[in-house]
Write the structure tokens for this entry.
Amino acid sequence: MSTTSVTTSIDIRQPVAMVFEYVTTPGNWPRWHPSSLAVSGAIDHALAVGEQVTEEYLVAGNHGRVVWTVTERDAPRRWVIQGRTDGTGVAGMVAYTLDETPEGTRFAREFVYGAAGVELPEAIAAEVRGRIEEESAEALRRLKAVLERGASAG
């Protein structure tokens, strides 16, 4: 399966631990990520390795559901989830990396995606990647705005 990776980062004027708790609590995702329409399952706390959540998404115009499983957690520095959509062969990985800065936190989000047996024409793949890059940048702008207004982790 060929994959594509999109990484975005932003500085947030909040402590690393607070940002980590907020972003790893799935119930918060629809509050800041434009692609996250709804979440169900374990959504009310920062997830540990092995826990799962189901997300309804709209990414680059594509609607679906994905079950995410936490595969790595090194609080408050790194958190990784792996997901697979219902019956489409599309798989993804999201990794959050947080670093302390003098002003607060540098938050980086890496999204790796691909589909088994699906090779998009180059122009379409570039368009999809461009839309995902825009959505990812908007997500981090929203996250910064929400957290700098003083949102709580729950």
Notes: The helical segments are 16-23, 29-32, 122-148. The longest strand covers residues 62-74.
